[in-house]
Amino acid sequence: MARKHETHDEPAASALVVYEEPATPAIADTGNSDEYEQEAEAEIEEQIAKPGSVVKAAYKVRYRDRARAAGIRGKAAKRSNWDWLAQTLAGECLNKAGKIDIDKFVAILACNGEPDALARWDNRSKGWEGRLRMTGGLWLRTEVAEAGVLRLPDGEELVPPAEWVAKILR
Asked: Along the 170 residues of the chain, how does pLDDT read in single tens digits?
């Protein structure tokens, strides 16, 4: 999942990378201590109980339960569907504390055809980063599935799994 932690034994012939399912999905090293995990769980529970959220509580519970069942620690998997794109974006855009780096995320959106994500989604009220992540991610899903490739700022192009593309384009 997390590209920044992968090592490559041989140089790639091109920048095109075909996705391979990781053995165990994981996010960037967050120092997954028990204390960190307890904080992540508490924050997820708080988010589930929060009234007036854009994301329905039932989806938040589903995301949390799916991550728990898979043994995935940390917040990232518990706040999304944790599909191929979510895992790839986590590897590219989350810092060691599990927070999104908006500049990296916006750069990925730009590489895939959104010239100014910050102007397009300009609401900066409380929680704007999460809304940008969610809305930009929804937009990116369709773009990547239709193009058959996720373009990254470093010039690398990742080919999504066929099952993922089929599910998005159904």
From this structure: 455 544 344 334 444 444 444 433 344 444 457 887 888 888 888 888 888 887 888 888 888 888 888 787 777 777 788 899 999 999 999 988 888 999 999 999 999 999 999 999 999 998 899 899 999 999 999 999 999 999 999 999 999 999 999 999 98
> What is the Cα gyration radius of the chain?
16
Place of tokens 């998005």: 168
Distances (CA, A) of 37 to 27, 43, 75, 159: 13, 10, 8, 32
Look at the pTM and tell me if it is higher than 0.90: no
**In 35-117, beta strands by DSSP E:** none
Which segments within the chain are labelled E, that is strand? 16-18, 150-151, 157-159
How far, rounded to the nearest angstrom, does the alpha carbon of residue 76 sit from its chain's CA centroid? Answer: 7
* Residues 118-129: b if buried by 16+ CB within 10 A, e if exposed: eeebeeeeeeee
Long-range contacts of the stretch 118-121 (C-beta < 8 A, 24+): none
Region of residue 31 (left: phi > 0; alpha: psi -120 to 50; beta: else): left
